[in-house]
Specification:
6-stranded mixed beta sheet, two-stranded antiparallel ribbon, alpha/beta, Rossmann fold, single chain
Length: 215
């Protein structure tokens, strides 16, 4: 996964994920300033049985929506730099995220990984974890079923489509730990809830969910 990403970074120049101008860290100054007002440390209690807080960077709209679609579906893996830089430039959020013991990306299935070439949540989680000096564990949660893509389903279908698709690696101890689950987009919350439900079998102290954008 990492090798392929490195290769993509060589093939694609380092450009701003929003406007396409050359920008070393995936985010040009102009776009950073333009989106500053949206990029606050949004925290919400979403009343989920399985996690406490939802933290998100942006509402899922406009330039951010386009950027996420490019990131996830148009092979523009380098855009992970843009998102990580938004987080690094947000001091309040960055300080807040230091409290977690483990960062866990929402996994994708083997087949999806093969076709997309990267797990979009892993790229963010892995780089962010390095800056935060927190362990990023991609081997705790597995996706064992190739279900239909959630974004192509209606509200009711989403709920059943996601059941039983994740599996916990029981060899890793999460007992008493503060966990941060990282995903790209939060819509109905079914994916996040299902992941947290499975993770809660390992008896962590607390699980919060962090996403790039909330729909
Ligand atoms: Zn830009």
């Amino acid at each position: 996964m990492i090798k392929k990403n490195k290769l993509l970074n060589i093939l694609y120049p380092q450009v701003c994920g929003i406007c396409g101008e050359i920008a070393e860290n995936g985010l040009c100054r102009k776009c950073q300033n333009r989106l500053k007002e949206y990029n606050v440390c949004n925290r919400e209690n979403v009343n989920s049985k399985y996690f406490s807080n939802l933290i998100y960077l942006f509402p899922y709209e406009g330039a951010i929506r386009n950027m996420l679609i490019n990131y996830k579906f148009n092979e523009k893996s380098f855009i992970y730099n843009t998102f990580v830089n938004f987080i690094l430039n947000n001091q309040e959020l960055f300080e807040f995220l230091k409290k977690y013991d483990k960062i866990i990306p929402v996994p994708i299935s083997k087949n999806r990984l093969k076709s997309r070439g990267y797990n979009q949540s892993f790229l963010i989680a892995n780089k962010l974890a390095k800056f935060l000096k927190i362990e990023c564990n991609y081997n705790i949660l597995y996706k064992i079923k190739d279900n239909k893509e959630q974004n192509k389903l209606g509200k009711n279908e989403r709920e059943t489509n996601i059941l039983g698709v994740y599996m916990l690696n029981k060899n890793i101890n999460l007992e008493g730990k503060e966990i941060l689950l990282i995903d790209d987009i939060y819509t109905t919350g079914n994916t996040a809830s299902e992941c947290c439900k499975v993770l809660s079998e390992a008896k962590p102290k607390n699980i919060d969910v962090f996403v790039l954008a909330k729909d």
